[in-house]
Every structure is written in C-alpha cells, then in structure tokens.
Amino acid sequence: MVIHHDNNKKYLFSFVAMDTVLPEFEPESFMKIMYGDKMIEYGEEMKPHELVDPPHIWFPAPNMNAQYTLVLFDADAHVPLVRHWIVSNIEGDKPGSSIRDPPPENNYTPYHGPTPPLNSGKHRYVFALYEQKTANQTITPVLEDTVHHRAYFDIEKFSAENNLKLVAATYMRAEHEDGFEGLASMHTEVRSSSVVAAATPTA
Q: Looking at residues 69-96, what average pLDDT do you find?
C-alpha cells in the first residue's frame, strides 16, 4: 500500500501520537523509502540489521525550483530526540537524479542506523522532509563533531532557525537487536545513499 500525500496526514497523525513529535501540517508531498528491496510503510517494523546502510528515498518536489532538507530522528529515545541523519540542499528541479555520498556541505549529519537500547521498547524513527527558503543553505548550528553528541536534538528549534517548511513525513519502528549497540556500530564514514526528487514518483 502506497500512501499519497492526500492521505499522509490521516495516517501520520491517526495511528501514533505524532503530534507530540511534529507540528500538525498539511502534507504537500510524500516519500518512498527503500531499505534494500523493502519499502517503508507508515509504522513499518524493522530490525536494526536491516537499517545499517542508508535508504534510497524518492519524493515528488512540491516546488521544482526549491531545495529540500531531509531529517531522520529517534522520537522515543530515553533523552529528548536523537538525530540520525540530516541531508540538505536536495535539488527539487532534477527529476530522476540522485545524491550519492553527499558532499560535506550537504551532509549535515552522517547516517547512523537505528540502534535502540535493550529493554527500551519500540522506537519511532521519523523521516521529515522540509522545503528550504534558501538555495545552497548553510545549515545551523555549525557542528564541530557531526558524528557524536546526537542526543537532545530539538527538531522544532532546528526547523525554525533554518526557516524550513515541513512538507512530508513518515516513520518506521525498531527495537533492540543484539549486536547493534549504538556507539559500537556507529558509522564514522558516510555510506552510499540516494535521495531523489522526482516529478512522477514510482508506486
């Protein structure tokens, strides 16, 4: 089942307490997220071993002349939100093109696959897509260490300070899996990833 943006709000806010994580908004797009050959539906349950490498993501750009920022964060950490991935300056005017191994200025936070702690239950990992008001934007705050210190992420403050407009969101769920213990399996190098803006998304 592929949920298009006209039903995005219904699914996003009806099944989980997403209003405690993101502000209620009118979706203008949607994302097709693939981990290998598995597509992420709303609330899809995944195993950390399936999430080691970054996914491929496609979305129809609401404004083909704009650029976009993608954020992935853990909404159920034992501390306030934990950031897992932020990519900025995604082109909206190049249907079918992709960003692989984003340059440092676009890869604000390298991808870190979900690694929920033992006995912490199922965590919601939220993908949020924002439209930028500025092209080739320098995302703030400037981080000295983009790999560590990911906790206490404030998505509301982050989006406000960078003047970002939320246009799409979805989420998956994952719980602890032995062998995937957070820092022990953290990526210190950016792996191959793809974020695609497409005029006509594949179903």
A: 86
Return the higher-pLDDT residue of 187 and 176: 176
Of 108, 106, 111, the closest CA to residue 142 belongs to 108
Place of tokens 């006995």: 119
Confidence of residue 130 (pLDDT cuts 50, 70, 90): very high
- 101 pLDDT more than 50: yes
